[in-house]
Amino acid sequence: MSASEIFAPGLLDGQVALITGGGTGLGRAAAQELIACGARVVLAGRRAEVLDATAARLGSAASTVAGDIRSDDDARRIVDTVLQRHDRLDVLVNNAGGQYFVPAEAIALRGWQAVMRLNVGGTTRMSELAVERAMRPAGRGTIVNVTLSPHHGLAGMTHSSAARAAVESLTRAWAARWAPDGIAVIAVAAGHFQTDALDKYPDPVRAGVARTVPLQRLGQPREHAWLVGLLASELGRALSGSVVTLDGARDNWFGPWPPPTLTDDGGEVPTEERRAAATR
Q1: What is the pTM of this model?
Q2: pLDDT-based confidence at residue 260 (cuts at 50, 70, 90)
Q3: Which of 86, 93, 168, 191 suits a disulfide with 19, CB 3.0-4.6 Å?
């Protein structure tokens, strides 16, 4: 691992970070930056093979623990594994999340509940466990919740916009509630980034997404990682309770509905093809 491009060497020396959804995309980029700043990082996610491949790429400062944060038992095991391995947990990055592309009026109850269970329930579960088992006993810690921009509602993903808004509200409440314990809680509202996650969306969405950003480009994962590194530092503690938006001014966008870059040739907002549910 090379040194950070922008932070002083040793910024996070001795720190231990847990990143959910750390095997791919923005989670992987954040892990790389935190390691470059001197931290040891534990990557959590559901797919052990993906986590192991990322850890091998990041080097000896990275390790993995597979589990589903929607499960109480798995979430507890993930946090306990970090403590057994490192005897501390300084930074939790709640990066795991998910949604699927569908017009608001077509969201099924089951789909709505699935998005809420992961984005809100999983974040809540991991945060409370990290505080209870590691951060409150240590008298300090930092939680970074990755949410979503734009805040005025993301066309085709209103369920995710609602879920991330809930997490931002929780961020503010937790920052006040846990301040006496020395714990900082900050949210990062991420805009559109150039990651593999874009590949799953319909062609009109992929083709037009950068044009919806006033900066006229997608964000780079390393830019998100730099912000996470900053928030994991001592300065991040002063930002507790804040929602920091990183989206190339996407939050300022407005225009007709549906935007022409979002619709298909027939003028309809496309629906993402869902994968068949896995059987046990």
Answers
A1: 0.88
A2: low
A3: 93
